[in-house]
Structure formats: structure tokens, C-alpha cells
């Protein structure tokens, strides 16, 4: 299984890091490592540790900062969320229903007053009356007016709509061992009308002033990575690798991602052709399109890269004679990327645990 970091927004996405997760028993087995050609400097890391290394390298490489989106496999890791915050990045992290939080206006008790004997206590406290609740219990206790029906984007057949609630909470994971309470952040809950109970939960450090629609819109951008990997598998063969070597696995993934990046650049260089009667795209998304920059080609068929129209914004009708003017007007748009962490598709390499090379 591979861990990947993608940079994307409403219009496009591309993996910027892609690395194989090496199980601990593999990392400690010199025979297996030698057969698969695993480099000597590769040591065992958990998937959250790999993800954190990837985002640190992305920032060091100068990739613009964005919001980090994580599914529950990563978002449930309190240490990962804490480290992302320490890097100065906001996140939207999927969490499990049993995750515990402090409801608005609640929190752990302060340390016990010092009696003058022994060492003063500094850790927060809980008692029978001061206990956090699970996010599922918090959701079930919300009154009906707390839930709103929100549409966040156009789907393939219709607009995508669901029912959501949000409230400010404090994560409570082992905070009795801390000296200070954690800051408040958003708890976002999804409960579709046709379900008997809430289906998804997220914690987010996006600003307290963010609108409800924008919070949902940003959270739901994880659909982009699903589409991205679908295209990577179907268009350029990311899932076709059947080798048994560390280097071959990463070479195959690198070439597939490079080819996909080229396809994105070519697609974004073609302006959308629409008539003046065509309706403008709807939806709350506001991020401009992510664009892969490339050098201008020489020759009569030369083209230059241009971002596509921002999602949710109308675009004028285009004709070949003035499409170059539109490209020039769009060229200086600055993207606002979103970082995604996810497990990539399971590839052939992951099945060779006990097979000969």
C-alpha cells in the first residue's frame, strides 16, 4: 500500500509525493529487503509518520500552503493533527464516531491547588461530572434546528446535497495528561435524510469565521482525490504494475504521475467553449484552478498553459479568435492548493510478502 500527498482543488489534482508503506515485519527482515531491493536507509514508519514527512518535504520544496484534508485513517491520529497545526497549516480530518470531545463551554478541570506539600500538580483533571462525550453522542443530542441542508457542488447527474451540523468543540484525547486545554475547533457532522444515524464526522481548524457552506465545500474536496486516482488508473495505468521491486514500483508510479501531470497541463490549456446561452456553473466553490506550469513551445502550433475558469464562476462565450486573450487574462491567477493525505490503491507489489522475487 502506498501513502500519497496530493495538491488539488476543485478543478484538478496531482500527487506530489507517493511512497510505499513498508510493514514493520518487512522492515525488520533483511532477506525480504534484499530480494525486493529496499534501500538501507528506509526504516519502518507508520502511515501517519510517512504522511507528515511528505508534507514537510512539500513545504520545504516551496509548494504553496493549503488546507490538509485527511480521511479517518489519518485524522484519528492526534499526534499527526498536532504536528500539522505546529507547521502552521489548517486541516479537515475525518474521525471515528467514538472520538471524544468537550462540548461548547465545557472542558477539563484545572490542576488541583497546591497544598504546600510535595510537588505542585500541573495536569488537567476529570471527575464524574466533567467527562467528554463521543462525537456520535454529541450529534444525536443536537436539536433539529442545528441541522442544515447544504449543497456543495454539481454531481454528474444532479447537485450534491446532504444534511449537516457544526459546533465548536475541544478534542479530549488524553488531555488529562496535558497542562493546558486544547483550543477549540470545528466538529462537522453529516447525517443524510435517508440514514438512521449520522454517517461522517470531521474535526477542522479552519477559521471560526468560515461560513457553513465553505466549511462543507472544503471538507468535500476529498472527492477530487477519488477522481484523480480513478483517472490515474484508467488513463495512465497506475494500477497495472505487477513487479516485485522497490525501485520498479516507484519508477512506475513516477512515470504515471508525470504523464498525468502532462494531461492536466494540456487539458487546462484548452479554454472551455460555451455559448452565451449556456448556464454558468453553480455551486459554492471558489478556488481557482490548479495549473501545472510548463515552458512555451516554439513553432506554429505553440500553446501556453492557462488556468481554467474558477469553479462556481461564470465564463463568457468563447470563440477561436479571442481565446488567446482569455488565456492571457487568466495566466496570472494564483492557485490555492489543498493537501490530501490518503492510502493509494493497492498494487501488485503489496502482494509479494511471501513470494519469491
How is this structure best described in words?
The chain is an alpha+beta fold. The chain has 2 domains: 228 residues, no CATH class; 105 residues, no CATH class. Helices cover 27% and strands 18% of the residues. The chain has 10 helices and 11 strands. Strands 1, 2, 3, 4, 5, 6, 7, 8, 9, 10 and 11 form an 11-stranded mixed β-sheet that branches. The longest helix has 23 residues. It is globular. The C terminus is likely disordered.
Descriptive terms for the model:
357 residues; alpha+beta; eleven-stranded mixed sheet; 10 helices; 18% strand; disordered C terminus
* Main beta sheet: 11 strands, mixed
User: What is the H/E order?
Assistant: EEHHHEHHEEEHEEEEHHHHE
Give the uncertain stretches in residue-range form: 275-336, 344-357
* Alpha-carbon distance between the two ends: 18 Å
Number of strands: 11
Content of β-strand:
15-25%
Please tell me how large the radius of gyration is. 24 Å
SS summary, helix count? 10
